[in-house]
């Protein structure tokens, strides 16, 4: 089998094969990536990418569950990981367990992801001990945008020790992997060499054990802004707008629908012709 399908499969990739992942929020997109990705993340980026929110803070459990259920219908082999939304896990390990269990039970996800390092280690330990595989997420943690003062690079200069301590703390607590978002390349490489669990980079380093991107970013579908770490592998937003403009022009010129799109008043005689 080409792709990983459990959290333990992901963990076992460390030092062996690069881990491929993307976010997904819908069934058709999940279908496109199932055969190519080791895991698919139902990210709380859904709030910004599909719902027009200006941060991830407004994303709810119900939104995550609905998108998680949609993604699950499109996956057969890749592991599905689902983000815990802001406010669903920070209070206590018990609160985190209750909501993580609900996310997994109602969507079929094989693991959850939550943001935070040292301060979330106790919660990660609590979840893992009770059957919930946890992917950690350190460096730039978008749910903390208001205390971080923006979406800045994390771990430069004297901040590097904090991010390294976060990585060690989540690994010690039993996380099966850790996302490193927007940290300097050298620090990402140092963390990758230091911890026994796979690092998943986004704006980090090609030396990470795996990579993740937001699918709408890499397809050029989300164009409100482009982070430096995003590579656009397609321009679907441009394609979509051009297609919509062409449709609008044809409707206004009465060129669409054309003869092949309309129905005769009598069914055609038996032939290859589609009714
Ligand atoms: O929500 C998200 O898309 C994420 C990834 C960018 C790691 O957390
Ligand atoms: Na996220």
UniProtKB/TrEMBL annotation:
Q: What does the note under cofactor report?
A: Binds 1 Mg(2+) ion per subunit.
- Per the UniProt record, which EC number(s) apply here? 2.1.2.11
Report the locations given in the UniProt record. Answer: Cytoplasm
Q: Which InterPro entries match?
A: Pantoate_hydroxy_MeTrfase, Pyrv/PenolPyrv_kinase-like_dom, Pyrv_kinase-like_dom_sf
Q: Name one Pfam family in it.
A: Pantoate_transf
Q: Which residues bind 3-methyl-2-oxobutanoate?
A: 44-45, 83, 113
Q: Which residues form the signal peptide?
A: none
The EC category is transferase
Alphabetized, the UniProt keywords read: Cytoplasm, Magnesium, Metal-binding, Methyltransferase, Pantothenate biosynthesis, Transferase
Which co-factors does it depend on?
Answer: Mg(2+)
**Where does the record place the catalytic residues?**
181
Magnesium as UniProt keyword: yes
Subunit info here reads: Homodecamer; pentamer of dimers.
HAMAP family documented for this protein: PanB
UniProt family annotation: Belongs to the PanB family.
The name this protein goes by in its record: 3-methyl-2-oxobutanoate hydroxymethyltransferase
Q: What is the lineage of its organism?
A: Bacteria, Pseudomonadati, Pseudomonadota, Alphaproteobacteria, Rhodobacterales
């Amino acid at each position: 089998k080409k792709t990983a399908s459990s959290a333990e499969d992901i963990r076992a990739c460390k030092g062996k094969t690069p881990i491929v992942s993307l976010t997904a929020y819908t069934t058709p997109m999940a279908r496109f990536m199932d055969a190519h990705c080791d895991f698919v993340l139902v990210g709380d980026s859904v709030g910004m990418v599909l719902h027009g929110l200006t941060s991830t803070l407004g994303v709810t459990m119900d939104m995550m569950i609905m998108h998680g259920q949609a993604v699950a219908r499109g996956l057969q082999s890749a592991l599905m990981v689902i983000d815990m939304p802001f406010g669903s896990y920070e209070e206590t390990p018990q609160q985190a367990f209750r909501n993580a269990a609900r996310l997994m039970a109602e969507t079929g996800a094989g693991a959850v992801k939550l943001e935070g390092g040292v301060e979330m280690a106790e919660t990660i330990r609590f979840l893992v001990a009770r059957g919930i595989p946890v992917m950690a997420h350190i460096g730039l943690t978008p749910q903390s945008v208001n205390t971080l003062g923006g979406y800045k690079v994390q771990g430069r200069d004297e901040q590097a020790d904090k991010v390294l301590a976060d990585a060690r703390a989540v690994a010690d607590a039993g996380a099966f992997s850790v996302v490193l978002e927007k940290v300097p390349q050298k620090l990402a490489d140092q963390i990758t060499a230091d911890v026994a669990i796979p690092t998943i980079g986004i704006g980090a380093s090609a030396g990470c054990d795996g990579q993740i991107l937001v699918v709408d970013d890499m397809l050029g579908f989300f164009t409100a802004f482009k982070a430096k770490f995003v590579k656009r592998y397609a321009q679907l937003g441009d394609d979509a707008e051009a297609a919509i403009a062409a449709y609008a022009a044809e409707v206004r010129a009465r060129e669409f629908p054309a003869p092949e799109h309309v129905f005769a008043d009598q069914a055609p005689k038996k032939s290859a012709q589609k009714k």
